[in-house]
Amino acid sequence: MTRNKFEIDFTNLAVLASLPPHVLEALKSIATLYALQAGEPLFQQGDFSHSFYIVQEGGVRLVEHTDNGQDVNLKVYGPGDLFGLLAISGAYPHPARIEAAVDSLIIGISGRQARQLILEQPELGVLFIDLLVEHVHHAHERIRHMAAERTEQRLARAILHFSDKFGVELDDGPGEIALSQQDIAEFTGTTLETVNRLLRRWSKAGLIALQRRQINILDRPALQALASAMAEPGMGRVLE
Questions:
Q1: Does this model's pTM top 0.90?
Q2: Is the pLDDT reported for residue 183 higher than 70?
Q3: How far is CA 120 from the centre of its chain?
Q4: Do 175 and 166 contact (CB within 8 A), yes or no?
Q5: Are residues 64 and 126 in the same domain?
Q6: Judgement on whether residues 136 and 155 belong to the same structural domain of the protein
Q7: Across-strand partners of 82?
Q8: Which domain holds residue 194?
């Protein structure tokens, strides 16, 4: 029987793979599925978050509205990513708007009810601790990358990351990325002019093809080589 697209499905979510079936069923009983169109917000900056979320399909981005009136893209979450675990400790005002980067299905799980479930299913608590530790390590790693990598490396790494998260399947794997150059500039902490200059250079070299709000990867190994290259002398090693 074909699964209904608009049903909660934990089947292919690696983040929950270690949990036994009865715990997954208990989680599903306190979960809600949200269908979002591209650009539609899950919640606004400053809204109190009472749940944590898992991307079932599609993806979302965190957008912070700054004091000077700008919207800055901070991070993206793709299929299988979990975010908002702080809700397990209580409702909190979220520091950024969460909006769908593409048409998406998002699973929301009540933090209060999940906290109660942890008391009954301790393996769930261990998983959440591991996920929070992983989140801290990832945040530290991103700071190190920003300090140690050249802009060209950060950009190559970002394009490969977005391709894996949101890329449309081509013959040799995910390749088409439907994100603007402004989005990528904000995610990589550089300027739109720098991103445009590097992308045009790579386009002329045959690494990528540029279209309106879309990047097609033509030479993935070349981008991988750029992303994993050594930092310039005096800047330290690139940390994978």
A1: no
A2: yes
A3: 30
A4: no
A5: yes
A6: no
A7: 54
A8: 149-227
Q: At what angle do helices 122-148 and 151-166 cross, to 10 degrees?
A: 150
What is the average pLDDT across 222-238?
Answer: 58
Position 182 pLDDT exceeds 60: yes
Q: Name 122's Cβ contacts closer than 8 Å, sequence gap at least 6.
A: none
Q: Please write the tens of the pLDDT for every residue from 83-92.
A: 999 999 998 8
Residue with more model confidence, 98 or 162: 98
Type of residue at 89: S
Q: What is the distance between the alpha carbons of residues 218 and 56, in angstroms, rounded to a whole number?
A: 28
- CA gap 208, 201 in Å, rounded: 9
Task: For residue 86, give the nearest of 123, 114, 120, 62 by alpha carbon.
Answer: 114
Q: What is the CATH number of the domain that holds 199?
A: 1.10.10.10
Torsion (CA) 202, 205, 210, 216 in degrees, nearest 10: -90
Residues 205, 172, single domain; the answer is yes
Same domain, 63 and 44: yes
Tell me the pLDDT tens digit for each residue of 122-165: 999 999 999 988 877 766 666 665 555 688 888 888 888 878 77
Q: What's the pLDDT at 176?
A: 62
Please tell me whether residues 113 and 35 are part of one structural domain.
yes
Q: Where are the alpha helices (DSSP H) in the chain?
A: 21-29, 111-120, 122-148, 151-166, 181-188, 192-204, 220-227
